[in-house]
What we know:
This protein is an alpha+beta fold. It contains three helices and four strands, in the order E-H-E-E-H-E-H.
Amino acid sequence: MKVHLDRTLCDGFGVCAKHAPQYFSLDDWGYACLIGDGTVPEADRDAVLRALMDCPAHAIMEMDERRPDDVPEPTAHVDEDPAAHLRTEDNEAEWGFTR
């Protein structure tokens, strides 16, 4: 798991430092700072997720670790006419249009 702290969103509630003090500290003004590069081992995942979920400013984000080669190909049919599914006056009964 990898997390990111957006310090511009932080309002200084300190909830993150309470739940996961080994990953979040507070600066002199009470705003959160991320300790390390944001990589969280599986053993500490619950504490960091608790900090993420309890952050009132939503300043902590879990980074998606998918790689571009993990993204599935879109399943669009090349032969299919995209206009076949348009809602028009000709097929308004099919789509449930009312006037």
